[in-house]
Design goal:
The longest helix has 31 residues. The chain is globular, with a radius of gyration of 20 Å. The protein is of the alpha/beta class. The two termini are 30 Å apart. It has one domain. The strands form two sheets. It has a seven-stranded mixed beta sheet with strand order 1-9-8-2-5-3-4, with helices on both faces. Strands 6-7-10 form a three-stranded antiparallel beta sheet. α3 crosses α5.
Length: 320
């Protein structure tokens, strides 16, 4: 038994070393090639990665029936985006220290119907609320590249692989990821005017139903709402979309939740409804970018029970 455990541990270390060597090799290409050329040469490794993942994980395709009837994307487009497209988009954050360079930064633009600069200059802390949608794993890195240092809450302790690459993301004194279990540290950081990023379709904790599309319900986690109410933070919805596998991204910001919904005893249904309604136009426009965790939080209005959290699983702690 001890020999088997030792052998398994050795294999794990070898795999980690090989993974880091591969990451370093791809990162080295970033200094030699232009971004368009780098975009082109990384399609093959992205396709191989997507094929490996597809053989072991087909959750997105099993969630197809969860789409609202009006949302069903074209099957071929959905398949491409969910496999090769997202795998290719994921490679972007192998260069978290270079995303601030103009040649990279122009690949991601911020879009809001209000004065985003004024909101970001506010003295109040900000909690961003997003979903498992689009290339969501790159969202905190692009926010940081645009001068919005953000820490994302994840369900499990941060892995060594993720911590290794995250140490390259500026500013170094603001962690990219932190475990949701460390609420004392989270509360202290938000009071200290830091920016946090919550994913509200995790299917755990206290959930509230948000009706939409006549006969559909989205079940939203309320942790971000309750934290904003208790700390006086602004609560701002945001989503990131990718251009069908190309390295062109847009971060969409919705208007902040009105203060009357975030009193000492927050109006959870009203706040959740505001957040989801602000995200809904983007979801309708790009349904092929809905991830399985998001789709599993959608039920028919005839089903009044919460979604099966076993189908959703625990959010990944690592983007690598």
């Amino acid at each position: 038994m001890g020999l088997a455990a030792s052998f398994t541990d050795t294999l794990r270390k070898v795999a980690l070393t090989a993974q880091r060597a591969g990451v370093r090799a791809i990162r080295a290409l970033g200094t030699l090639l232009s971004v368009p050329m780098l975009n082109a040469v990384t399609w093959l490794p992205a396709a191989v990665w997507a094929l490996i993942e597809f053989r072991t994980d087909r959750k997105a395709f099993r969630a197809w029936s969860r789409f609202p009837p009006k949302w069903h994307p074209h099957c071929a487009l959905f398949t491409f985006v969910q496999t090769i497209g997202f795998a290719h988009a994921r490679l972007v954050y192998l260069w978290p220290d270079r995303l601030t360079q103009p040649r990279w930064l122009k690949r991601c633009r911020l879009q809001a119907k209000f004065d985003l600069k004024k909101l970001l200059e506010s003295d109040r802390p900000i909690i961003f609320v997003s979903l498992h949608f689009g290339p969501f794993r790159s969202l905190p890195y692009w926010l940081r590249a645009h001068g919005i240092p953000t820490t994302t809450l994840v369900g499990k302790p941060v892995s060594k692989q993720s911590a290794w690459i995250d140490r390259l993301s500026l500013p170094l004194n603001v962690p990219v990821l932190t475990c949701v279990e460390d609420m004392r540290s989270i509360r202290k950081s938000i009071i200290g005017r830091r920016r946090l990023l919550f994913l509200s379709d995790v299917g755990r904790g206290k959930l509230v139903p948000v009706p939409f599309e006549d006969d559909q319900i989205f079940w939203m986690a309320t942790g971000a709402i309750r934290l904003a109410a208790s700390t006086g933070a602004l609560l701002v919805p945001c989503l990131i979309t990718g251009n069908k596998g190309l390295w062109n991204f847009i971060i969409h910001f919705g208007s902040a939740v009105p203060a009357e919904h975030l009193q000492e005893k927050p109006d959870l249904p009203a706040a959740a409804n505001h957040l989801f309604q602000e995200m809904l136009p983007v979801l309708r426009q790009h349904p092929e970018q809905c991830r399985h965790r998001l789709l599993h939080c959608i039920t028919s209005s005839s089903i009044v029970t919460q979604p099966d959290t076993g189908l959703i699983g625990t959010p990944e702690p690592s983007p690598i």
